[in-house]
Amino acid sequence: MQTFKALMARKTEDGFDAKWENISEDELMDGDVTVRISHTTLNYKDGLALTGNAPIIRRWPLIPGIDFTGTVEASSHPDFAKGDDVILNGWGVGEGHHGGYAEVARVSGDWLVKRPPAFTPAETMAIGTAGYTAMLCVLALEANGATPEKGPILVTGASGGVGSVAISVLAKLGYNVTAATGRLGETDFLKSLGAADVIDRAELAERARPLDKERWAGAVDVAGSGTLAHVLATTKYGGTVAACGLAHGMDLKTTVMPFILRNVTLAGVDSVMALKEKRVAAWTRLAADLDRGKLAELTVTKPVEAVQDLAPKILAGQVRGRVVLEVS
After folding, report:
1. Residue 1 confidence class, pLDDT cut points 50, 70, 90
2. What is the pLDDT averaged over residues 18-37?
3. Considering only CA atoms, which of 4, 197, 185 is closest in space to residue 103?
């Protein structure tokens, strides 16, 4: 019987332990598509899972990794056949279903999308859930009327995965982008991605008045908590804030005044359970609107075995841009 390597997390008396093991396909979970994985990546959620800083893993034992790309080896799903190149983002993979830190995965075909021909497998994982989420945020801004002529767009967590891809896409679309970061040493890097201005995230940590000076026509926020409250209070009339993260906290202490006096929209963006048509739309737009040269600038490539060393670094904000992990 074929065996393959996988990073298996197992529950222990002290918490959990994750080790690379050789396992058989019989140990995989149910699914109608089997994929030979070529690349995966590291997202903030993966960092939480691998360090145990949040209860991301809900089933034991489990192979972590919320993203992967590869080639179909076997399928009974009508949309996929052997040899198809596919991408998976989210759907609880790496949380309650075996994920991408392995050479082989078995999943539901309903969770997969075909890889756009514009991208190599490595490029799709340079994008990963972070970049795909960034594109969902851009689509949310557009759906609520954002245009470059209406003013600057703020991107928080700018040096991270979501932020760096959001800057690249928005800049290519003609928006004036302000990048907020806690690492001002990355200013040149962020401007190379297309940011017109870079500010210290500490500016957004200060408690704003219920309605403060209007600064942004819209925003992509990965922080939540006081940062999101500040952004809402400083968004221009009719603006939209696409919120997709909680890096600074899950609380939100604000007032209704931005919503009812400035007609501000707070658009929640979920990438895990997004419908397939939204996923396909996001990947189609990424193929059209993401500068592949900029994508290369913000990407570093490592062997998948490095993921455990990288996990605490992404939580500490020490990972710039995106990480591609080569599996096979």
Report:
1. low
2. 96
3. 4
Is 292 part of any domain? no
Mean pLDDT over 275-303 rounds to: 96
- Is 282 part of a structural domain of the chain? no
Residue 24 DSSP SS3: strand
Give whole-number Cα distances, 148 to 9, 102, 174, in Å.
46, 42, 6
The pLDDT of residue 179: 98
Dihedral pair phi/psi, residue 159, rounded to 5°: -80, -10
Residue 93 CA to residue 24 CA, distance in Å, equals 18
pTM of the complete model: 0.94
Domain with 167, as residue range(s), is: 129-268
Q: Is residue 280 part of a domain?
A: no
Are residue 90 and residue 205 in the same domain, yes or no? no
Average pLDDT over residues 198-209: 92
Domain count for the chain: 2
3-class state of residue 27 by DSSP? helix
Residue 248 above 70 pLDDT?
Answer: yes
Task: Mark whether 231 and 312 lie in a shared domain.
Answer: no
Which of helix, strand or coil describes residue 58? coil
Q: Are residues 76 and 11 in the same domain?
A: yes
Query: Where would I find the beta strands (DSSP E) of 192-304?
Result: 197-200, 216-221, 235-243, 265-268, 299-303
